[in-house]
Recover the amino acids of this structure.
């Protein structure tokens, strides 16, 4: 239940206050949930809300950031030990 609420918050708060809040909230979500695949969907939704420019990489900036964050968390989950909080 907490993951669903944080997923909704990671979409709603950046829409209201600005796209730049997605980055610290995604980092916090990775720290709390260890491997949250939900941030890919949130990044895709926020990419459709905000316009960053033309081109594939610039047009899908938040989705690419969330994919890189998931890959980093998968790599780090084997190297370090941290507990899931939510």
């Amino acid at each position: 239940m907490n993951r669903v609420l944080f997923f909704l918050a990671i979409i709603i708060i950046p829409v209201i206050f600005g796209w730049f809040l997605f980055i610290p909230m995604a980092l916090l979500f990775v720290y709390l949930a260890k491997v949250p695949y939900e941030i890919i969907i949130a990044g895709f939704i926020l990419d459709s809300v905000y316009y960053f420019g033309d081109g594939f990489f610039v047009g899908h900036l938040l989705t690419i950031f969330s994919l890189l964050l998931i890959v980093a968390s998968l790599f780090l989950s084997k190297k370090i030990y941290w507990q899931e909080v939510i």
Notes: The chain has a mean pLDDT of 91. Residues 2-79 form one domain. The two ends are 9 Å apart (CA to CA). The helical segments are 2-17, 22-33, 38-49, 56-59, 61-79.
